[in-house]
Amino acid sequence: TYDYVDESGRLLSQTVRRFPKKFCQRRPATPLDPPDRIARDPDGREWVYSLKGADDKPIRRVLYRLPEVVAGVEGGRSVFVVEGEKDADAVAALGVVATTSPQGAGKWEDGFAAPLATAARIVVCPDNDPPPAKAKDKGYPGQRHVADVVRSLLKAGVAPDRIRVVEFPGCKDASDWIAGGGTKEA
Q1: Are 98 and 119 contacting, i.e. CB atoms less than 8 angstroms apart?
Q2: What is the pLDDT of residue 137?
Q3: For residue 20, is the peptide bond before it cis, meaning its omega torsion is within 30 degrees of 0?
Q4: Residue 61 and residue 111: Cα distance in Å, rounded?
């Protein structure tokens, strides 16, 4: 599970990865949720498998590792935006600030740019995806995602010289690059 928390660390939602590579989203249940929407974990915690609140309105969606992102930006550090929680955790383990948007490529929202707007530098790292399955889909998914992120950052007022796009040639993604010996310095 990957926790999505607000600036103060309060749990808003989780991404749950199931074998081999299926993902679902859930949020903590509230007293206002109908009992038929609530699922209980063996540990007794209650969840609703939805990103909508009890009122059926979307809950607040935030960047993964948001408190670390906010602290890093305030500390003048660069922030790496990767595709997926596994990659964000792998990059963060190198000692840098890393994040991703919930639900992966194609799900970036303009509001995600706000906490990054004053970062010293924003490094956007696409996955090295295969070509799209359908001819009507233009471009590679990782490249389309990076373009969405960069457009959003520019729209939020980030100067172009503070944005870098870094690819991992010969690797599927940041995790594969790190597993192959990639370092913070490299």
Answers
A1: no
A2: 67
A3: yes
A4: 9
Q: What's the confidence (pLDDT) of residue 139?
A: 67
Terminal alpha carbon distance of the chain: 29
CA separation, residue 82 to residues 36, 49, 128 (Å): 36, 25, 11
Q: Provide the Cα torsion 109, 112, 117, 123; round to 10°.
A: -90
pLDDT value of residue 25: 96
Distance between CA atoms of residues 155 and 61, nearest Å: 19
DSSP string, 149-184: HHHHHHHTT--GGGEEE---TTSSSHHHHHHTT--S
